[in-house]
Amino acid sequence: MCRKVIEAIDKKDLSINIGATGEQTRSFMYIDDCVKGIDMITHCDDLIATPINLGSSELVSINTLVSKVEKIAGVKLKRSYKLDAPLGVAGRNLTTLSSSKFSSGNRTRLWDKGLAETYKWIKEQFNTAKPASASYRLKNHLPGDNASGLISNRL
């Protein structure tokens, strides 16, 4: 969602397409917390043969996520909904063993820090990946227009 908002701002087209109704919910986890959790799981002898879901139990609607990203970006987008898009699971959430087994109290809150940090990182990547001008490509021996397509496909 961060990338979609950044692209809308960059194109000066302050609109966004949202699949289905936007009311479907998902749970999100900050990448640093995910890495820490994976490290804790791999070093825990108690869980050798135990399946585990690592994640957050906080459900967030897609519409709420868009609102939070808009607030971080300082923009308000016109939303359009693709109501014929597959809804998928109305709500997707993890029941986490990690909250009882690995409770460290140091989880990054999505709204307090996680989403703002993620937005900042994605924006930096977006700005770095913008196609270089022809003169820059020639001066620095970069490939032609195909290179910009490869870069943007990595976002």
Total count of helical runs of at least 4 residues: 7
Question: How many β-strand runs?
Answer: 4
Oligomer: single chain
User: Rounded to an integer, what's the Rg over CA atoms?
Assistant: 19 Å
Approximately how much helix is present in the residues?
A: 40-55%
Strand content: 5-15%
Q: Explain this structure to me?
A:
It is built from seven helices and four strands. The protein is mainly α and 155 residues long. The chain has a two-stranded parallel ribbon. Mean pLDDT is 76; it is low at 133-155. The relative contact order is 0.20. Helices cover 46% and strands 10% of the residues.
Draw up the topology in text:
Layout: H1 2-10, E1 15-19, E2 25-27, H2 31-42, E3 59-61, H3 62-73, E4 78-82, H4 98-101, H5 110-128, H6 134-139, H7 145-153
Parallel strand pairs: 1-4
Antiparallel strand pairs: 2-3
Structure characteristics:
155 residues; mainly alpha; two-stranded parallel ribbon; two-stranded antiparallel sheet; 4 strands; disordered C terminus
Write a brief structural summary:
The protein is 46% helix and 10% strand. The chain has 155 residues and is mainly α.
